[in-house]
Amino acid sequence: MIKNSISGKEIRILVKNKNICNMSVFKGRRVIDQIRGRSYEEALMILELMPYRACYPILKLVYSAAANASHNVNLKETDLFISEARVNRSTFIKKLRPQARGRSYGIKRPTCHITIVLKEKSKFFLEKSKI
User: Fold this and answer.
1) pTM exceeds 0.85, yes or no
2) Is Transmembrane there in the keyword field (predicted)?
């Protein structure tokens, strides 16, 4: 399930789909920590060049959030940056693997929830300067 919410000039996208987020929280956080606070274009370059398997679902998510920002709120993709990025733990997918002598062995596969928030650069830096 993908949830989108638009508040002001902020685009928030949350992915809870087990097929997209079929990775460990630690593997997702390793990638998310590299793009947090970066501009949209810089984050895309980083995600395309990193050698981790977790980069592809996060890349798709950032593309989707930017497309929603340009289509729904009329924001320019060049003015966007990732203001918030989180990876939270979700449920485990439980499977059974057959073993010898009619036994079975349980497999727990971790999943996660990914949240990405995009904001405009100009709005964010104006708010920081007022504080």
Assistant:
1) no
2) no
